[in-house]
Design a protein that fits this description.
Length: about 250
């Protein structure tokens, strides 16, 4: 696995490091300074503090919000005001507190069946990007205790998808059905940041960074882009026991 591993003392410093890197990516010089910046948001609890920072005075006025377009890596099939909704987290903590334009927010629809929602989101992506496989400017991802990322779970059929941009993930009686972006789309990104915090993720992170490619998270490898693992000390607590694979390791304060 190539990429950069950045070890931070705690979730606060991890979130600040992610915010600084996101700010640098958004403001990186481009041929067309008005070109949109397409950002994929992660769900779960880990990115909450990052979203709070981006909406704070420390970062808010440094970000060209009208250029940003927001997408989601996955979503549970629940109403948008449900506490389990990834959209709700981003809306309440980030989007309603910054001057982002409503047409620039692209949530995954959850009113229909998972299959219909996945097709609708794929149609939205193709309308937005035009021809070819879309390439997001930055994708934020998390890591589950079982090594899943977005809603790409171990053994899921979605892992073998070669052409679709978004697919349904049915969980049956185990939990919420979902819609997720697929590996062909994730691996076209210009940048992917994994955000991993907490001791409960230590074993999964150890396996993801040193294993043989069996976990879904290990299959995220941008073809032409940057891959960064931003982790806190608790999540990194087992890494000294293995040979870590990323090309570079940094310690951030």
């Amino acid at each position: 696995m190539r990429g950069t591993l950045v070890i931070c003392p705690d979730l606060e410093s991890l979130s600040r490091e992610a915010a600084r890197r996101l700010l640098a990516a958004v403001n990186h010089p481009r041929k067309d300074p008005r070109a949109p910046f397409r950002l994929v948001l992660a769900g779960g609890s880990t990115p909450r503090r990052l979203y709070q920072l981006l909406a704070s005075g420390e970062f808010r006025d440094k970000i060209p919000w009208p250029r940003l377009h927001f997408f989601w890596g996955d979503e549970r099939m629940v109403p948008q005001d449900n506490p389990q909704s990834n959209y709700r987290l981003a809306q309440e903590v980030l989007l309603k507190n910054v001057p982002v334009q409503r047409p620039n927010i692209h949530p995954i629809p959850t009113q229909a069946s998972p299959e219909e929602a996945a097709q609708a989101y794929e149609n939205e992506l193709r309308r937005h990007f035009g021809r070819g496989t879309p390439a997001f400017d930055l994708i934020l991802l998390g890591l589950g205790g079982d090594g899943h990322t977005a809603s790409l779970f171990p053994g899921a059929v979605a892992l073998e998808e070669k052409h679709r941009l978004a697919v349904a993930h049915r969980t049956g009686l185990k939990g919420f059905d979902r819609v997720t972006l697929t590996l062909p789309l994730l691996n076209q990104a210009r940048r992917v940041f994994f955000l991993v915090a907490g001791g409960s993720k230590a074993t999964a992170l150890q396996a993801a960074l040193a294993g043989a490619g069996r976990l879904p998270a290990q299959r995220v490898a941008p073809r032409q882009g940057e891959l960064v693992w931003l982790v806190d000390a608790a999540a990194a607590s087992r890494l000294e026991r293995v040979r870590v694979q990323p090309a570079a390791t940094e310690v951030a304060g």
